[in-house]
Amino acid sequence: MSEKQLIIEVMESVTKRTYAYFKSEFGIETTECNSVSGKLDALVLLDMTVVIIMGGKINLLVVFSFEASLINAIYRKMIDGLSIEDHEVETYRKAAAGDVINTVLGHSTIDLLRLDKNGISITPPRILKDVNVIRAMKCKMFYAQSLSTPLGGMTISLVGSQELFDTVF
Amino acid sequence: MDILNNTVLDILVVDDSPIIVKKLSMLLDGLGYRVIQTAANGKEAVEAYKICKPDVVTMDITMPEMDGIEATQAIMGEFPEARIVMVTSHGQEAMVLNALKAGAKGYILKPFQQQKVYETIQKMCKRPIKLQFF
């Protein structure tokens, strides 16, 4: 498989699994908006951002960035029936963002199994605190896909090596 | 505790997500199990196991510090009778097989389905599966 195909397959799988998870778990309909790819100076982030590294042959940083209205809606649905103290709200809101990306990428590994039969590892999700922009480092490239929902927007971005993306865009 | 009779099973819930810990604990309570301890990573899980000796451990795979597979190996190395069920959104067969090789007795996929959670724990403890209305 070419590197171009790999990146496209990863993005297709992640967006497809995001639609499915949002619909089945939260009843949220998602539509695809514009995508941006290639060498960017910086990736502008929304209100809450969480990252995971997909390992093995894929080896990409996957970034989910949410508008506040969307992650707040997801948070409220996730904690339905749970007792959350006022001082715990921010912790649980961040955990909600982490659970979304963790679940979506976990499900994506089923689609992507044939890309790496030894298994695709995923790291624990990490919230980016007080980061509004990821600046392009020397060898990093971005591929970003915006998604829209009635409750707010989000972007899914793949960040990888320049060699990987040079052959693609 | 004799887990073959009808006594309540004591459960250790291990997950780095506080939401998952709360949701799973509530679900397990609703099924009649008793969550006696929680842990946020593999290291905490190993220490908690030594102290509370639960009947069952629900173990997330992807966690910081020490992941669920390493923690399972560590617990099984010291307590071969431990009953550990992996909890994961990871759909890959290879990852699930690694967990089972480490000594896990079963696995539960996220998002949780109450019936599946119940059946997995009952089967693991060789308890009868009664009809439940979820």
Which ranges of chain A are low-confidence, i.e. pLDDT below 50, for 5 or more consecutive residues? 165-169
Strand content of chain A: 25-35%
Structural class given helices, strands, pairing of chain B? Answer: alpha/beta
The poorly predicted ranges of chain B are none
Instruction: Give the CA-CA distance, first to last residue of chain A.
Output: 16 Å
Number of helices of chain A: 4
Rg over alpha carbons of chain B: 13 Å
Portion in helices of chain A: 25-40%
Helix/strand order of chain B:
EHEHEHEHEH
Secondary structure tally: strands of chain A: 8
Strand order of the largest sheet of chain A: 1-7-8-4-3-5
| Number of separate domains of chain A | 1
Account of the 3D structure:
The complex is a heterodimer of chains A (169) and B (134). Chain A is α+β, with helices and mostly antiparallel strands. Chain A has one domain: CheC-like (Chemotaxis protein chec), CATH 3.40.1550. Chain A has helices spanning 3-26, 68-78, 89-111, 162-166; strands spanning 31-38, 42-44, 48-54, 60-66, 126-128, 133-135, 140-149, 152-161. In chain A, the strands form two sheets. A six-stranded antiparallel beta sheet of chain A has the order 1-7-8-4-3-5. A two-stranded antiparallel sheet of chain A has the order 2-6. In chain A, strand 7 and strand 8 form a beta hairpin. In chain A, helix 1 (3-26) packs across helix 3 (89-111) and helix 2 (68-78) crosses helix 3 (89-111). Chain A starts with a helix and ends with a helix. Chain B is an alpha/beta fold and 134 residues long. A five-stranded parallel beta sheet of chain B has the order 2-1-3-4-5, sandwiched between helices. Chain B is globular, with a radius of gyration of 13 Å. The mean pLDDT of chain B is 89. The A-B interface holds A 25, 78-79, 81-82, 88, 91-92, 95-96, 98-99, 102-103, 105-107, 109-110, 113, 117-120, 122-124 and B 16-20, 22-23, 26, 62-64, 88-95, 98, 110-111.
